[in-house]
Design brief:
Number of strands: 8
Number of helices: 13
CATH class: Alpha Beta
Mean pLDDT: 93
Strand content: 5-15%
Distance between the termini: 32 Å
Structural class: alpha/beta
Bound molecules: flavin-adenine dinucleotide
CATH topology: TIM Barrel
Oligomer: single chain
Low-confidence stretches: none
CATH architecture: Alpha-Beta Barrel
Shape: globular
Radius of gyration: 19 Å
Length: 309
């Protein structure tokens, strides 16, 4: 792991920075690269633009590590009314939630009940709810919850991270359930015992997992979304997909708002199934610093705004 990535991931957890940095105007200006705005209306407007390019979306209401029951219930209700709005406005938008935003740090039962209510509403409205994967200490509880909920709610999916050494086993455990899986590389600071630190190992594991998952798509009705901007991996996944008989429209790639937008449009116009993940909300600090850590050169962009705002 690079030194600058390490420093940025530490900064994402720093309380002083969390309470001060969001007030700086130049940071808020730079944030626009990754986020259309803090309000639902901003996300909806962005989704409509992407829909024009045949790119549907996934919405995430930012926030994590909530330690208050009422706050977790508010997040649950927010997602329920978001699902109603998506339905009313006939948007092709799925949602993605963090379990610590629904109370996982309080008790697993609270997170489960809140998640179940959201999944229930989504099922009634024929929509899909994804579960983000957070740091490695949450993987067991997240997957336990997913396995339980998937029995009643086929419309739920979970994210897995290729930087974790355990993920191959997790994929093999989940496959018989015809899961919905979003495969990403992983965005947190993890110890070496848990996670590969060398980018080449993370990428190699990603490709190996992709091969297993694509076979699942062709044989078991598994839905896989490749959550990566890595062009080399896109090419290799597309090649394997055609070898195992997965058609273009079943090759699903999800990318983040503001990253490789032209590539998203090109792949969509070539017939691949592209979704853009649009985040909104006021609790953006931790999420944003993880985006900077993914590409430390982004810090230069933030600083440029210091001199131009
Ligand atoms: C749809 C989606 C959902 C995600 N959900 C989760 C989750 O639930 N849990 C989790 O741990 N992680 C999640 N992530 C983040 C993920 O783990 C990676 O940290 C992130 O996607 C960067 O890795 P990469 O696969 O794009 O590959 P990289 O090798 O990091 O990047 C490949 C190329 O993409 C471009 N790029 C990548 N990131 C950036 C950036 N921030 N700014 C500018 N350019 C960039 C660069 O050109 C880079 O060379 C998600 C990512 C996506 C796309």
């Amino acid at each position: 792991m690079g030194l600058s990535r390490n420093i940025l991931l530490r900064a994402s957890e720093n309380h002083y920075l969390l309470t001060h940095v969001p007030n700086y105007r130049f940071v808020r200006k730079a944030l626009k690269k990754f986020m259309p705005g803090e309000e639902i209306d901003d996300a909806v407007k962005a989704a409509r633009l992407f829909q024009g390019d045949r790119i549907p979306a996934v919405f995430t209401y930012l926030g994590e590590s909530i330690r208050d029951l009422n706050e977790a219930a508010q997040v649950r209700d927010h997602y329920i009314s978001l699902l109603e709005r998506i339905d009313r406005e006939k948007l092709d938008v799925e949602i993605s939630v963090k379990l610590t935003q629904l109370g996982l740090d309080l008790t697993t039962d609270h997170a489960y009940e809140n998640f179940e209510r959201v999944a229930e509403k989504a099922l009634a409205l024929h929509n899909i709810v994804w579960i983000d994967m957070e740091r490695s200490s949450y993987v067991d509880s997240t997957l336990q919850l997913y396995k339980k909920v998937k029995r009643d709610f086929a419309n739920t999916g979970v994210c897995l991270q290729s930087y974790l050494r355990r993920t191959k086993q997790d994929v093999l455990d989940l496959l018989p359930m015809s899961p919905l899986i979003r495969l990403v590389k992983g965005a947190y600071k993890e110890p070496k015992e848990m996670a590969f630190h060398d980018k080449r190992d993370v990428d190699t594991n990603y490709f190996e997992l992709s091969q297993i998952l694509l076979k699942g798509v062709s044989q078991n009705g598994v839905r896989v979304a490749f959550g990566t901007h890595d062009a080399m991996l896109h090419r290799r996944i597309i090649k394997v997909a055609s070898e195992v008989g997965v058609t273009k429209e079943k090759v699903e790639i999800q990318m983040l708002y503001g990253i490789k937008t032209e590539e998203q449009k090109r792949l969509a116009s070539d017939g691949y199934n592209i979704r853009v993940l649009v985040s909104y909300g006021k609790a953006w600090y931790k999420w944003y610093v993880r985006r900077l850590a993914e590409r430390p050169a982004n810090v230069g962009f933030v600083l440029k705004n210091l001199f131009t705002s």
